[in-house]
Each structure stands twice: as structure tokens, then as C-alpha cells.
Amino acid sequence: VVGVVVVLFTTADAANQAEEVFKKVAEAQRSLYRFAISRIVGENTGKLIAFKHFDDKEETFAGSIEDTKAVSDFVVNAGMRIFQEMGPENYKGYIDRGLPIAWLFVKPAEKENNEVSMTAYEAAAKEYKGKMSFVWIDASKYGGMSQRMGLKGVNFPAAVIDYQNKHFGFDETTALSAENIRKYFADYFAGTLKRSVRSQDAPAENPSKGLWTIVGTNFDEIVKGNAEYDVLLKFYAPWC
Asked: Is it the case that residue 14 has pLDDT exceeding 90?
């Protein structure tokens, strides 16, 4: 990532374990970040620091510099903005990061309509840094993705959390206010958010004539969640 330099401040002893770990991580990620070793003795000696031109200008590693995975994770997390636009050029980086992704679908031309949700998302990104990736995406181009994540895909801005192909959409009947967005993320980390499922609406009259109509949103409740009787389910295409 342009503008990110990761520096290991060490002593003249080139055989130390921390330096070997640093070189290993640098070799694996040199196409994305810049790496350097400083042997100037001073207040930073023994530290690993990421210098960047965005967010916090400096970020110091707090773990063991002899832990390869911890150092690698630090570099990846430090090298990504806490909240930015998702696009083809950085999509793979977010997927490889392995964290839940909080998507915010907005139409950039509607700046006033997006201001509250964008500000609240950025605040949440700072609070949950290292636990979740926060991105916004142009709904004018990629709005259809929101439908695949269980949203209606009609009104924007709209929010959804995606992790391991499980989606947790922000209630589209509720205002995307700062307070509601804070609660949304708090509920996710508390494990109380309900998964979003791409689905037709269930019929108002259900069952009808003794038969249930099963859609995505009631499948688990009616088919899987009832232990009192067996269920015979017919799958069909309405147009056939």
C-alpha cells in the first residue's frame, strides 16, 4: 500500500530473532508495503512501528516481535485504512484479511443523505479496529450486491455485515442514525443480531388450507425448528 512504511528499530546484532521474523514478514508482503530496519539507538529501539499518511500517522506494535503471525497481522491491519471505499483494487485484501466486513451501500451523488451514516461508520471503525473491516461501496454501480446479502436493494444508504457467507443486515425500516448504528454493531458483537436471508415475503395468510408456504425467512422456524412432526416439503418453480 503506497504511503505505508514499517520499520523495525533494532541493535547492531543482526542475528536476533526479532529481525529474522521481520525479514520473513517483509519478504511475504513486500509487494504491498515498504519495510526498513533502523540500527540507530534511541527511544524507539526494540519497537516495530508502521508509519503512514492516513488515520493514525504512527502505529506501534504491542505484541511479541518474535511472533511471526502477530507481526504479519499487525502489518496488514496497520496498512489498511479504518474506513474506505471498497473496489476491485482492494477487494482481495479485505477478503484475505479474514475479518467480518461491515458494508455501507451509498450513492456518492447524494452526499447530504449519506453524511450521518458515513460519520457513524467511521466512528465505529475506530472503536472496533482490528475486529472488523469497514467499507463503503457505490450503490449506483454495485447495489445488486446488497440483495445477495439479504437486503431489499431499493433504498440507500443501507448497511450489512458479512462474515463467512453469513449476512446480518441493518433493519431497513429503521433510520440509519448514529445511535442506531452504534447499537447495530454492539448487537453484532454481543451475538444478538438476526441473520439476513434473501427471501420473498411470507404470505399474510399462512398456512392456507392446511399448507404452509415456505420462504427463506421462515424456513428454519417451520421446517427445522419444529420437533413435533415430520415435514414433507415440495420444491418447485412457480413458472413451471
From this structure: no
Model pLDDT for residues 35-54, shown as the tens digit of each residue:
999 988 889 999 999 999 88
Contacts of 103 (CB under 8 A, 6+ apart): 86, 135, 136, 137, 145, 146, 149, 159, 160, 161, 162
User: Using one digit for the tens of pLDDT, what is the confidence trace for 155-190?
Assistant: 999 999 999 989 999 999 999 999 999 999 999 999
User: What is the C-alpha R_g of the chain?
Assistant: 23
Q: Is 133:179 a contact under the CB 8 Å cutoff?
A: no
CA-to-CA distance for 240 and 232, rounded, in angstroms? 20
Bridge partners for 95 per DSSP: none
Q: At what angle do helices 178-190 and 111-127 cross, to 10 degrees?
A: 40
Look up cell 519497537; give the residue.
47
Would you list the DSSP string of 152-213?
-SSSSSEEEEEETTEEEE--TTS---HHHHHHHHHHHHHT-PPPP---PPPPSS-SBTTBPP
Chain length of the chain: 240
